[in-house]
UniProtKB/TrEMBL annotation:
Record's signal peptide: none
One Pfam family here: SNase
Stretches assigned to the TNase-like domain: 28-116
Species whose genome carries this gene: Devosia soli
InterPro entries given in the database record: SNase_OB-fold_sf, Staphylococal_nuclease_OB-fold
Name recorded for this polypeptide: TNase-like domain-containing protein
């Protein structure tokens, strides 16, 4: 449940996501940020590279970012999931954990080599 967002007060979600473009209602921004019914969610406990710049890892970082984003899209579209919220970050995004079958999607992406633990994880893509 997301406080202040009663439309999201359900236990399990099944919705169709696309990659974000101009429409930012229900879509994947990148491997750790989504929009769900008009609410911007920053997924906690993990971090993925940014697909829009190559801060430290060049083309390999951007390629990994696209893989992480595609995998998150696949996970969300292929499975029912739950959302737990934990306040907002400094950018006004709702901090959240998404679980599929009880597992944090961040743990799945980390195990698959597409993400790092956040905080205190090494930016292996640099």
């Amino acid at each position: 449940m997301i406080p202040g967002y009663p439309a999201m007060a359900v236990d399990e979600w099944r919705v169709s996501f696309g990659m974000c473009g101009r429409d930012r209602h229900t879509c994947v921004v990148d491997g750790d940020t989504i929009w769900l019914q008009g609410v911007n969610l920053r997924l906690e406990s993990y971090d993925t590279p940014e697909p829009y710049n190559d801060i430290c890892g060049g083309r390999a970082e951007v390629a990994l970012a696209h893989k992480a984003s595609a995998r998150l899209l696949q996970l969300l579209n292929g499975n029912p999931f739950t959302v737990e919220t934990h306040g907002e970050d400094r950018y006004g995004r709702v901090l959240a954990t998404i679980r599929i079958g009880g597992r944090d999607v961040g743990d799945i992406l980390i195990e698959e080599g597409l993400a790092r633990r956040w905080p205190n994880g090494r930016e292996f893509w640099c």
